Amino acid sequence: MTTIISISNLCKTYENGYQALKRVNLDIREGEILALLGPNGAGKTTLISVICGLVSPTSGTVSVAGFDIIKDYRQTRRRIGLVPQELTLAAFDKVWDTLCFSRGLFGKKADNAYLEQLLKDLSLWDKRNGELRTLSGGMKRRVLIAKALSHQPKILFLDEPTAGVDVELRKDMWRIVNRLRDSGVTIILTTHYIEEAEQIADRVGVINNGELLLVDDKANLMQELGRKQMIIELKEPLKEIPESMASYALELSDDGHELIFTYDTQGKSTGITALLQAMHSAGISMKDLNTTQSSLQDIFVNLVQAQP
Amino acid sequence: MNLQAVKVIYKYEMLRTWHTLFQSIASPVLSTALYFIVFGSAIGSRIQSVDGVTYGLFIVPGLMMLSILTQSVSNASFGIFFPKFTGTVYEVMSAPVSFFEILLGYVGAAATKSLIIGTIILITASFFVDLRIDHPIWMALFLILTCVSFSLLGFIIGLWANNFEKLQIVPLLIITPLVFLGGTFYSVSMLPPLWQTITLFNPVLYLVSGFRWSFFEVSDVNVGISLGVILLFLGICSGIVWWMFKTGYRLKQ
């Protein structure tokens, strides 16, 4: 797959000395949906802002479709649509007018048919003559999406698109995002809702304290997710795992009271029955049984907490 | 060049004017009429002609300048300050537009509005006095240069201001006194010698003087110097704007 955005050694230190990005390297593939996960203040918005031209990088380079974001800013920016986090709209503008404004700003000639379809897709057509201040929060979010798509960008940035958005709009939004992806648009979204990343993204990047900790295919992460642990509490403590059970992925707790069995739920067989039989043959009796499943949340929390 | 963007910014700013059309037109018409009633008819009737021109006629160029200067500054400053204040400026900043194009859109619209206001005042004045314009081309040149350079100044103030107080303080505390003390309602020769010298440091004097010359060939300073000063002022404002854009001053972190 070709790379559409290439970020290398990107650093950003704000005037107050705050280091928002620390040598970020990331290649975004054409046509994918990439979710950037991270807590508040992790640097997600700064990263997007640099690519879109709202924040100047301190060092490092970013190229979009092979063009440098500073030298060839016209080339890079016309390919990008940005839906900002805040509901920043001019209160007295009308929906239709603000869309025409956005399209023109990106150098595109008026195309009423396209804008009409866009508004219909976003359930905004009825509101086209309404002033933005009269719209609800969810409707304003839709208008921001429409504005970002008004110039038919090849890359769409959605900065916390579902913050404060109801279920209905969230569903609509994912429908639109999927359709955009099908039409070849690359989508980068930031979120701190893990389920969201899980649901929609092809790849997930975890960012914290200005560092990109991990970027991986969701499928790989899901495999991690598929791993489950069974904790067997024993009646009598064991000194060591009996040899007859050595072939199982077992760990013994320090005090010898617990056996921890890690298995793959996605696999053909989990091995639980055989293990329990083996325990029975070895004369080990158990007091209690527990299973735990790691989630993207755990992976995420572990990654974020492991940082100094 | 992204002309489409210049067009939409210009159109957007002009639309803002049409939304407040009544206020935009009524206020200069009303204030001009009031000035004519007070200075032209009431007090003016007791004032002898100034440099051979009746007082009512004499104040026409000054009155136009008064409105154009204040309107250019307030309109252009508000035009860029407001999107900055509400955050909607993000869109312009992330669009494939150069700073020059942004400037062309915003300052062009503000200058156009000032031109319209200037023309309205001129028309209003024609109802009160017998207008006389000896050098219409010079008049138009001074008018356009003033509209553009003070709209640029307004744009600078709008970029610089990070709150509403700052947005209003410059027009209120600097522009208005300069305009009133720049010979809007009098000829500098009417002042005592010391004040004449002090007034020479007021840039507005040169604008009013040159503008007045284009009407009646009456001026406090040579018309060439007037033109030079306004071009210098335009150059300085352009330089400041260029620096602000280059450094991303108050627009880009």
TrEMBL record, chain A:
Protein's UniProt keywords contain Metal-binding: no
Any GO molecular function: ATP hydrolysis activity
Segments forming domain ABC transporter: 5-234
Domain of life: Bacteria
Keyword Cell membrane: no
Alphabetic keyword roster: ATP-binding, Nucleotide-binding, Transport
PANTHER family listed in its UniProt record: ABC TRANSPORTER ATP-BINDING PROTEIN
Protein name from the UniProt record: ABC transporter ATP-binding protein
TrEMBL record, chain B:
Name used for this protein in its record: Transport permease protein
Membrane topology designation: Multi-pass membrane protein
Record flagged with keyword Transmembrane: yes
Domain ABC transmembrane type-2: 19-248
Record-level Gene Ontology MF annotations: ABC-type transporter activity
Chief location of this protein within or outside the cell: membrane
Annotated compartments: Cell inner membrane; Membrane
InterPro entries recorded: ABC-2_transport_permease, ABC2_TM, ABC2_TM_bact-type, ABC_2_transport
Membrane spanning stretches: 20-43, 55-82, 102-125, 137-161, 167-186, 198-215, 221-245
Keywords: Cell membrane, Membrane, Transmembrane, Transmembrane helix, Transport
Domain of life from the UniProt record: Bacteria
